Structures are given as structure tokens and as C-alpha cells.
Amino acid sequence: MKNLEIIGFKRANLDSASLSELRESGNVPCVVYGPGIKEQIHFYSPIILFRELIYTPEVHMVKLNIEGTIINAVLKDAQFHPVSETLLHADFVAYAEDKPIKFEIPVKVSGSSPGLAKGGKLELKTRVLKVKGLAKDFPDVIPVDISGLDLGKSFKVEDLNVEGFEILTSPNVSIVTIGVPRALRGKKGGDEE
């Protein structure tokens, strides 16, 4: 799992005028809470520091450096402006190294499917899976090998074999399906959906 440091500064004023000033000066109001710290901390960070955290498919554990205090955390929620899509607010959950946390990890499809070779269409149904475990045990991605998938077949959560953490997403959820295009439906060898 990749780590990323975000430097923050405590904020005392929580009123909306102060929030607007922070945003206008290129900062993001944030809050961190959770079992890894005694009480929640309101802080702000320069918006530029969020580029590698928000605008990437990769998942990062975050090392918050708030005025010299280091807090291990994960991004819980990010709020964006509805029109400009500018980051408006970020929530972090602080975790303890020895206590399990809930997290979302992206899936990564690999392999060569016989169904794709026959003209099937790859349909990614789920991009991330909810998991629970110790942060140190989380991988960057959860691999999904589609080498055995034929036309009309799906790879489900229950088909995964992972160690070190628990998958919370329902076992019946399809991660990827090899769809049967209309041109192949009804032809011999093509399965109906």
C-alpha cells in the first residue's frame, strides 16, 4: 500500500466565513477523527497536496502531519463543488496499527479470457471492494484473473482468494462479466444472458 504525506495546519475558526477564506486562498478544510486519536482535529491543507490522493485510481494510506503531530489515516470522504468539481472538504479516519479498519481497495483485472477471444465484451461491474483488516495487510489492488471466463460468465467476490484481510462486499456481487454481444446471441456456442 502506498503512503502519502499531507501537511496540515490546525484551524480554530469553524464558521462559514473562515471556510470561504481558506478555500479562496487555495486550501482545503479537513477533519480527522477515529480510534487512532483522542479527539477530532479540524485543520486545513493546501489543495495541491491532494492531487495524488484524490485524482488517481491508486489507494493511499495517508500520513497527516498537522503542525508536527503525525497521524496515520485514510481518506473517508471528499466533497466537491457541484459545478467546478473543486475539492471543498476532506474527512480522514485515524487508525491504530493494531486495530482493524474498514477500507475500499480497487480491483485489477488481468488474464486473457476465452470469452473475449470469441468477441465478448468485458463489463467491469465493481471497481472497488470493501474490506476490513489491519492497514499493513492491505494490498494496492485486489487481482481478478479472468483467464477462465467464457461468454456470459462472471467472476464474483466469492471466487476471490485473499489472505490477511476480510472482504465485506457480498460474495454474490459480480466483479466482472464477459457480456455476449447482440451479434453473437442465438448463435451456436454463444450463451444467452
Helix content: under 10%
Report strand order across the widest sheet. Answer: 1-3-2-6-5-4
Tell how many strands the DSSP assignment holds: 13
Strand content: 35-45%
Q: Secondary-structure element order, as H and E?
A: EHEEHEEEEHEEEEEE
**End-to-end Cα distance:** 37 Å
Structural class: mainly beta
The number of helical runs is 3
Q: Over the alpha carbons, how many angstroms does the gyration radius reach?
A: 21 Å
The overall average pLDDT, rounded, is 89
Shape by Cα distribution? elongated
**Unreliable sequence segments:** 188-193
Q: Please give the largest β-sheet.
A: 6 strands, mixed, barrel
Describe the fold and architecture:
There is one protein chain. With 193 residues, the chain is mainly β. The protein is 9% helix and 44% strand. The protein contains 3 helices and 13 strands, in the order E-H-E-E-H-E-E-E-E-H-E-E-E-E-E-E. The strands form 3 sheets. Strands 1-3-2-6-5-4 form a 6-stranded mixed β-barrel. Strands 10-7-9-12 form a 4-stranded mixed sheet, with no helix packed on it. A hairpin with a 7-residue loop joins strand 2 and strand 3. Residues 188-193 have low confidence and may be disordered.
A few lines on this structure:
This protein is mainly beta and 193 residues long.
Itemize the secondary structure elements and their pairings.
Elements: E1 2-10, H1 16-24, E2 27-33, E3 41-46, H2 51-54, E4 60-66, E5 69-80, E6 87-94, E7 101-110, H3 114-117, E8 121-124, E9 128-133, E10 142-145, E11 154-156, E12 165-167, E13 174-179
Parallel strand pairs: 1-4, 2-6, 7-10
Antiparallel strand pairs: 1-3, 2-3, 4-5, 5-6, 7-9, 8-13, 9-12, 11-13
